[in-house]
Sequence to fold (504 residues):
Amino acid sequence: MLNTSTNENDNNQTGEHLNNQEAISHFDETVEQGEAQTPTQTNLGIAMSLHNLVWGFVRSIPGMLGYGSTAQTYKPAPSLYQKAAEQGDPEAQNKLGICYRNGRGVARDHTQAIYWFQKAAEQNNADAQTNLGFCYRDGLGVKQDYKQAIHWFQKAAEQGNAYAQSNLGVCYRDGRGVMQDYTQAIYWFRKAAKRHDALAQANLGLCYEHGRGVARDDTQAVSWYEKAAEQGNALAQTNLGICCKIGKGTVQDEKQAVYWFKKAAKQGDALAQANLGICYEYGQGETKNYDYAVFWYKKAANQGSALAQINLGNCYQKGQGVVQDDTQAFYWYHKAAEQNDALSQINLGDCYQKGQGVIQDDTQAFYWYHKAAEQGHAAAQNILGICYQEGQGIVQDYILAIYWFKKAAEQGDPEAQCNLGLCYQAGQGMPQDYQQAVYWYQKAAAQGFQVAISNLDNLLRLNPSLANLGSNPQGFFGTQSVPNNVNNNNNRGLDSSPPSFSIP
Fold:
């Protein structure tokens, strides 16, 4: 607060404080306008403050000071803020904290940033409370402490600070510093979203898409994604592109999907870059162009996107947009497989099994197939069954072969259903049972699997009485015990990442 005392000494102090306030105001006005209107306007604030300050013409900086802006010189700003901050002005204290946090005009010093944020926050300055919350959340200048972050976000949020409201919502959603509470998360996201906070709008869209704290509603999800995307939020642009691509909550429109993927990809969003690569590779919403596909896959792959890494591996394996190179294919499959991407683990297993890009090694092939199978990937489970059946990379074990064939067959994998039928027909790993064999052949044949169709035809010609089996033989789907040496922990939590569409 300004000192309004009429004491002569106080008047002198107040006059200097007012001048500092006007200086800060004029500097901020210039900052917010982008390029200075005139050198006189830029220098006006300085002229009213420290007369002995060596000052030259400064280019004004776009955006708010301390948030990624650049300028030729920052030194006058901290000096101006320092005087007002020392006199207790909370706005100046917060801005001085920003200067120290970001190293603008002063050496970066998180301890000093915390000091000034704390000073302003204790005077109930909502921006400073929010900044202090960020410092505690990220461990900048203080030990990371989510409870303290919540404390300061809460204070600022109750004053209507949209950034604090949005981040408080994230804390409730993720259970950081507070018990997880989707209802509270939605409450604060709505508060911030109504104040046009793009991150809150994007997160509100995610909540509607996944039914977290609200009833699942794809139309509402798209509505919030659109609001955030139009403000330039890359997460929202990516998710909106995905919704347009698959027709989720909106009319399917591949060209519109590409439009939003490009917006987000140019901001460096890895998932958007990967999906844009897919659009170019398969000619979805854009003219097919393998060179562009590889370009965007590389951008995303180098950021660690498993989706891009496996697709880039595919390009190297097929020689699309790049010179065919099995070694590079193996390299990128391995990158994605290490991130627990099941399809990449299968591809990596194939590389080892066939000796493509790496020395042939059945044991390593089995290792990666097993990794994917444990995640519940049906194709990997079928392959693992074959490995046990034929003793490839592992000791032959018909019982475990049956176990993995059943796992995959129950997920509807036609090849596994056919293999399971063969085991029942031959009595391999269990007593011979033609009825079960026919049942699983029929399952696979209904999906057009030709080997099953042929096997079923041959079996029925030899045993016409099996032709009218009807539904599943009683008891087959009863609880089955898991062999001691098999990891059956396939329970996976909800994926918090934005969705992506898979490779056709």
